[in-house]
């Protein structure tokens, strides 16, 4: 039998890799993931593959820029209210934050792994899911509130205590709205989660807890089986294999 494991409590999209993103009431899910997610990124062309990406691990201030996707446009708002497009002015702005020479991707550029050219700049599989149950567990371990934005998930799933957790989702399919996802793997966490999304202050003790107590894993990656639409409140149903 299919089992309802929860419902969608939050939808997030990150049009520019390592920039702050946008909260949505609904989204379109296409072959590579949430439409408009990780459409654009910055590169160090002296590097290869995933090491090319310039991210907030190198420039934490990147997270202070908020990116929004609107059809074929990207709108970026700086912390001081200045607004940019995906253009030379924005490149100059981010270049001023680092001595490393950087390049901006073409709009909707494929990611460097030839076997998955459709994934753009999306890490691992296509969509990242996090549950409120896991957040509460981590809060208990860390002893502090945990903002779900630290984990940059696309879907925050609200689950009941007796519902199957992420460990039981692995290898299974989830039906959400009119889309179907295949849960492929855990997400292994890095220093990105140590940054407070509002203050940009870093606290390495959070990553230490995730490494020690959760084997560095938090959230799950899923690929798209059936494109469709997902809305806040949609049920998440784990299908029979």
Question: Which features does this protein show?
Answer:
single chain, 241 residues, alpha+beta, 7-stranded mixed β-barrel, 3-stranded antiparallel β-sheet, 4 helices, 14% helix, 33% strand
Rounded to an integer, what's the Rg over CA atoms?
A: 18 Å
- Residue-averaged pLDDT: 90
How many strands? 17
Low-confidence stretches: 109-120
What is the distance, rounded to the nearest whole angstrom, between the alpha carbons of the first and last residues? Answer: 9 Å
Description of the molecule:
This protein is an alpha+beta fold. The protein is built from 4 helices and 17 strands. The chain has helices at 88-95, 132-142, 166-169, 204-214, and strands at 3-13, 22-24, 26-30, 33-34, 42-43, 53-54, 66-70, 73-77, 83-84, 103-104, 127-131, 155-158, 173-176, 179-188, 217-226, 228-231, 235-238. The strands form 4 sheets. The protein has a 7-stranded mixed β-barrel with strand order 1-12-11-15-14-13-17. It has a 3-stranded antiparallel β-sheet with strand order 4-3-16, with no helix packed on it. It has a 3-stranded antiparallel β-sheet with strand order 6-5-10, with no helix packed on it. It is globular and about 55 Å long. Mean pLDDT is 90; it is low at 109-120.
